[in-house]
UniProtKB/TrEMBL annotation:
One of its GO terms (biological process) is glycerol catabolic process. It comes from Silicimonas algicola. Keywords: Cytoplasm, Gluconeogenesis, Glycolysis, Isomerase. This is Triosephosphate isomerase. InterPro entries: Aldolase_TIM, TIM_sf, TrioseP_Isoase_bac/euk, Triosephosphate_isomerase, Triosephosphate_isomerase_AS. The keyword ATP-binding does not apply. PANTHER family: TRIOSEPHOSPHATE ISOMERASE. The gene is tpiA. HAMAP family: TIM_B. CDD domains: TIM. Involved in the gluconeogenesis. Catalyzes stereospecifically the conversion of dihydroxyacetone phosphate (DHAP) to D-glyceraldehyde-3-phosphate (G3P). Substrate binds at residues 8-10, 168, 207, 228-229. Transmembrane segments: none annotated.
Length: 247
């Protein structure tokens, strides 16, 4: 399976950040591994232009479920595609928490992404409170069930498991804990989607850095990473890409 090293710049990045794309593309042409940068929407077009003809692909951090219309401040999947994006992240925990997005909305966004020809990266993950209550698999399983369209395929859908408590905290689950959740997601995907479920990439996110990447990528059913803070600088993200290429 083609691995995926995805960078989510979140609300970071100005025109000066374009230099990071050039540095990433020249230093890390890694076959067997897709490299993705999801900049803020303001930069998507320029980042896509800078990445054209390189090993770096681009995507957005969110999209609206509708194609167009009176939705001030939102962008549609068609607009993402038009700006050069090939992927869109949907259901990130920061959007679920800050914008009250539920599984049904996330699923509608994933459907819109597919309709526009984009690959949807559907994010799931438990809070610390849910983990401590022993509810991790139930919560994540429920999000997987509710957030994925019925016709999702291995080609058009990626699952990102991002424990909320590991995001931006420097805290990472043990490799056994990651293995357990990824295996459970895999079992659910295979039960629902058959061969497509076996082929869907499941990537891990939450405080991934060059220094812990190799250990995480050695975990079964970890097919890449969704990286926040460590994706902002090509020097840091390049180390993660290299670790994935070597895994
Ligand atoms: O939320 C994340 C990526 O979407 C993870 O963020 P960090 O890598 O900064 O923990």
């Amino acid at each position: 399976m083609q691995k995926l090293a995805a960078g989510n710049w979140k609300m970071n990045g100005l025109a000066a950040s374009l230099a990071e794309i050039e540095a990433l593309a020249t230093a890390h042409p890694t076959p067997g591994c897709d490299i993705l940068i999801c900049p803020p929407a303001t930069l998507l077009s320029r980042v896509s232009d800078a990445a054209l003809g390189t090993s770096v692909q681009t995507g957005a951090q969110d999209c609206h479920p509708k194609d167009s219309g009176a939705h001030t401040g939102d962008i549609s999947a068609a607009m993402v595609r038009d700006a050069g994006g090939a992927f869109v992240i949907v259901g990130h925990s920061e959007r679920r928490a800050d914008h009250g997005e539920d599984d049904a909305l996330v699923r509608a966004k994933a459907e819109a992404a597919h309709d526009a020809g984009l690959i949807a990266i559907v994010c799931v993950g438990e809070t610390l409170e849910q983990r401590e209550a022993g509810r991790t698999l139930e919560v994540v399983g429920g999000q997987v069930a509710g957030s994925l369209p019925d016709d999702a395929t291995a080609e058009d859908t990626v699952i990102a498991y991002e424990p909320v408590w590991a995001i931006g905290t420097g805290k990472v689950p043990t490799t056994d804990e990651i293995a357990l959740v990824h295996a459970d997601i895999r079992a659910r995907l295979t039960a629902r989607f058959g061969a497509d479920g076996e082929g869907m990439r499941i990537i891990y996110g939450g405080s991934v850095k060059a220094s812990n990447a190799a250990e995480i990528f050695a975990v079964p059913n970890v097919d890449g990473a969704l990286v926040g803070g460590a994706s902002l600088k090509a020097a840091d993200f390049g180390g993660i890409v290299d670790a994935l290429g070597a895994a």
